[in-house]
Amino acid sequence: MEKTTAKPGDYVEIHLTKLIYEGVLLESPETEKSFVLLKLDSGYNMGFNRKDILKIVLLKKAIEGEKEKVEIKKNNEKKNIAMIITGGTIASVLDPKTGGVHSLQKPEDLFQFYPELFEKVNIVKVEIPFMKMSEDMDFKDWQKIAKVAVDLLNDNNIQGIIITHGTDTLHYTSAALSFFIRNLNKPVVLTYSQRSIDRASSDADLNLQCSALAAISDIAEVMLVGHASSNDDFCNAMPGTKVRKLHTSRRDAFKVVNDKPFAKIYPNKIDRISEWKIRNKNKAKTDSKFEEKIALVKIYPGQNPDILDYYAKKGYKGIVLELTGLGHAPTKRARNSWTLKLKEIQKKGIVVCAASQCIFGRVDPLVYSNGREILATGVIYLEDMLAETALVKLGWVLGHEDWKKNKKIVVEKMLENIAGEINKRLEE
Question: Which of 39, 86, 89, 125 is the catalytic position?
């Protein structure tokens, strides 16, 4: 291989005998110095044996040091919003040493990449309660976000909030905030990116532009705003309790399930699709009590119900079962019947709820004898509620000591449509 002046982080061409590859040169691990790593424009990393490389041609040097800071000037003709930054890909950039991404450490770093966002709104406050990838979050993080959000919602100088967040558990957080924030008065907009902001195919810019319009709209809802398709044309504003991540990598990973989006949001307009609550003069408040000892259990063929003994032994207070189809589990005719075990653990005080493994539709225990048998044990069937939303809601309901003491109240609360989590009329 010919000598090259290229260093990790530089944009280069790697010439093989018959092929040429372009991308960002990465630093090779100490144990793999015989290989050269390249991050392709597609975002994937590729390795090459040094002996197969004819030459590496430097196309563009990496920018060293910090970029010039964006000067943020307040414009009195624009509305004011606040941002809550929690981490995730939308707040991450390429690490040229590893080919992965790392979190931006300062709000100023984030602002450098999104100048078009500031053409629509004034960002007058930025809060960073923590910086985490979403798979590392738990209910305590949801509580922190809710507290910060309520303080901002009750600030008369702020029209709405954008919360940036990782994608993997974003729908859990949107559900949690839907229950934790009471008397909602202004838009609470959660957004994301599937691809880091240094990539040409990043979805972050459009998502943030559309989120800015949502944050100054009259939609007083907890909503998730993100790409409606793989194109950079418009986003959907989706209800926080009726949305789910349905693809691992597509930019339109999130879809509304068993409901409709609130609106289509373009960079310059909002088109209504369904009804929403209107912004108002309520004083928002937090109600973020939460019972941590809850679980989500997926039913599969032949599954032994003894798994429930583990949760009983560990002192769990509630379980959401992801049942098959309309709401079924192995019963009398199965080798491992769940009927007796469900009765047993509920007598021990564990609340058991049922959602469907199916993405669309609702549970209905009355169609088949299997469902009726499970219903008779005391299991609470949760209509069309998403399993993830059901888990969050169950933790929230059981977090209230005065509710938890009375099974009848727990049933009433779980079946009460508190934050749009139950849709009585399903449409295509």
Answer: 89
Q: Which of 164, 167, 191, 389 is catalytic?
A: 167
Confidence at 119, pLDDT banded by 50, 70, 90:
confident
The yes-or-no verdict on residue 268 having pLDDT over 60 is: yes
Same domain flag for 154 and 180: yes
**Residue 381 backbone phi and psi in degrees, to 5:** -85, 125
Residues 10-30 as b/e (b if ≥16 CB within 10 A, e otherwise) read bbbebbeeeeeeebbbbebee
Please tell me the least confidently modeled range out of 196-205, 227-236, 387-396, 403-412.
Answer: 196-205
pLDDT tens for each residue of 272-292:
999 999 999 999 999 999 999
H or E, element range at 172 = helix 170-180
pLDDT at position 34, please?
83
CB burial class (10 A; 0-12, 13-18, 19+) of residue 299? middle
What are 42-51's contacts with CB under 8 Å, separation 24+? 42/201, 43/195, 43/199, 43/201, 45/99, 46/21, 48/14, 48/16, 48/21, 50/1, 51/1
- Please indicate whether residue 389 is annotated as part of the active site: no
271 is catalytic: no
Tell me the pTM. 0.84
In a domain, 217, yes or no: yes
Specify the CATH number for the domain of residue 344: 3.40.50.40
Q: Structural domain of residue 360, as residue ranges?
A: 294-415
Q: Is 377 a catalytic residue?
A: no
Identity of the amino acid at 371: G
Nearest of 160, 164, 88 to residue 124 by alpha carbon: 160
Q: Per the domain annotation, does 68 fall within a domain?
A: no
Q: What is the spatial distance between Cα 399 and Cα 9, in angstroms, rounded to a whole number?
A: 49
Q: Cβ distance 221 to 261 under 8 Å?
A: no
Regarding whether 142 and 98 lie in a shared domain, the answer is yes
Q: Which of 168, 203, 259, 384 is catalytic?
A: 168
Q: pLDDT for 415-425, tens place per residue? A: 999 999 999 87
List 39, 120, 125, 245, catalytic entry: 245
Residue 20 bridge partners (DSSP)? 15
Looking at residue 67, its pLDDT comes to 47
Catalytic annotation present for 168: yes
On whether both 117 and 50 belong to a single domain, the answer is no
